[in-house]
Known about the structure:
By secondary structure, this protein is α+β, with helices and mostly antiparallel strands. Helices cover 29% and strands 20% of the residues. It has one domain.
Amino acid sequence: MHTTFLKISLIVLFATYSFVAADDEQKKNQPGRTPTPQAPRVAHPAPPPPPPPKPATPPPPQAPKPPTPPPKAQIIPPVKSAPQIRQHFEQRKQQFQSKPIPVPQQQSFKASLPQRTQGHIQQAAQASDHLKREHPDHDKWFNNDFFEKHHHHPNYYRDDVNWWRPAPWGNVSGSLPYNWNYPVYYNDQGYPVDMPDYQQYYPQPQPLPEPQPLPEQAAPSSTVTYQGNWIPLGVFSVGQDVSDATKSSAYFQLAVSTQGTIEGTFYDAASNQTSPIEGLVDQETQQAAFKFTDIPEMPIMTTGVFNLTQPVALVQVQFPDGQVETWTFVRVNQ
Length: 334
């Protein structure tokens, strides 16, 4: 049975193949019929390579930065009370000539200077501690915003100068046009003591280097002491004596010009009031005298230029009625 089924399958397969082959041959020979043409195979070209990247466009050239303009020129105006102060200088010269200090007393005074200086340094530290403790905003005093708020515009002011940090004696004397060979110290009674050997008693810091131009919009540097026509003498608390001054809320900020005039600002921190100060330096005696501007009835305060470079300065205060008091100026640091 298996053999019969195999034969039948082969016959059917053969017949089917013969029929299909015959049919194809008939269609091929049928008249009027043409074979469908086959479209030729077209070879597609390879895609073009991508274009090279465009070169980066260079940034447009920047205009050169304009040079920093020079600082605004500082003005050295005339001192309104100059005649009054010059007359005061002459009166004091006559006083010195009529009653000079004996030489032994001068020598004794000089011998006491090293010990006195150490005490003055400690007193200045106490005054600075009091300032920082009682007035934590003191670092905003005597800057542009401070003067704007008080409607006070000192001629000496510049943003690039630290008005708290004083110039040492060598810089001050070298900036003035007087060619002083040595300082004159004014003692507790306000009398002059020549100090040709002052470095023996007062070790001086090294002179500060000449100031360099500051970068544009730079903050005031604590290392820049003076520039331009005015030299800072620093900030002092003031009182009737040292104890009073170290706890005071009254402050003088002073500066001296290269022409020997003095300007400054008095600030009463308790009342938040300011007053301008003006004065002169006397070439012959090295005295510095100053007073409140535009207030004739206010006293004239006098000390030595050298004294104003020290931690403590005793100042002779003469009122219009002739009364004289001694005030103590104690330096405070920012």
